[in-house]
Amino acid sequence: MAKFFLYFLVAIASLSFLFTGCDDDDDVARDYAVTVSLNVPDDISLSDVSELKVVAANITSGAETEIAISGSTGSEVLNAGEYNFRVSGKTDNYNLSGLTQAEVYEDKEVSIDLVIAAGSGLIFKEVYFTGVPSCYWRDGFYEIYNNSDEVQYLDGVILGCVSPGTGMGGPTPWVDKNGELLDRYPMNNSTFYFPGSGEEHPLQPGESVVVASSAINHSARKLTDEDVASPVDLSNAEWETYVEGEKDNDENAPNLELMYHLWGFDFFPFNTGTPLILAKLPEGTLMADFIDNEDNYERNAAISWFNNLMLPHEYVIDAIDITNAEDGEHYKHLHASEDVGMTWVWGADGPGTSGGYSGKSLRRKVVSITSKGRVIYKDTNNSSEDFILGGQTPTPGVNPSSVD
Fold first, then answer.
1. Closest by alpha carbon to 194, among 144, 161, 157?
2. Furthest CA-CA distance within the chain
């Protein structure tokens, strides 16, 4: 009887192993060989591109794999999944970037076109949008920096949020019939621009302006037991976003002009992040004419009952594709020529947690400081590389004293 019972246990164990082994085999992620080929514009030679970097970013897990390139091609073995393949590099005259999304469920050949990246010298040096508990988000700011060696003018520069569509980190519904991003960006909530006739608001090399949602000392607000003090005093901000009738008009800073408004009390890219852009209309295009032109508005029937202001993506001079840091699928909302990567703020519990109400900002990395003390920030149009991933304590109007 004891021998029979022993045989019975062995049989059960064998069956368990058989079924478990089958299940495990189904769940194991397969690996596939991926070959990447790069294509550059006709007037650029790939041999002249320096700091070339190719990364395969798994959309679901966020895991990134760098792919070495020899000549114009490279290969790597990747786990099965859906990937963003992004490229960045530069020549003496241009920053280059490229982006292709591809599913890897078999051996794959991926072709990536590099394009000349947007740029004017004006960049987002730092943005703060996360807010602090308890549900305080009016302390946001957006610092714009002249990263060039020539004077830049803020007159007519547009500050706006790109609509994320149906979710903060999900795929955007603003695509064409082939699933590609539209050539125009749908603007969300409120869009502002700097006043001036062309050269009224110069920004010298190495100078910045802070645009506050509310230009007050937020760190001095009265707290309740559930509140946390804001990390910023914005009473010295140079500009403020203001929607008439929606909130108090703080007199510490002049207001930007309102270009477009949907809803809300403040210029607010959600406390978990929304793509941000700086843009400028082409020379000779009047702001009033652009705003009044019905062709510059579009409604996405899948998500809205109103018309969004649409800005052609070639008008963009700087952009950050900010997304929710929570674990999950991360999709692109901006063209590769504006931002080939993505960035985010982590929550208090570290990577993979939402940065909402974390009190953290996103700041660009410092690549050098000139002999005269002018800070040069990293600007490759790849926010995954250019910004301090995960966020930091906000420093409005303050430049670091060392290279990151």
1. 157
2. 99
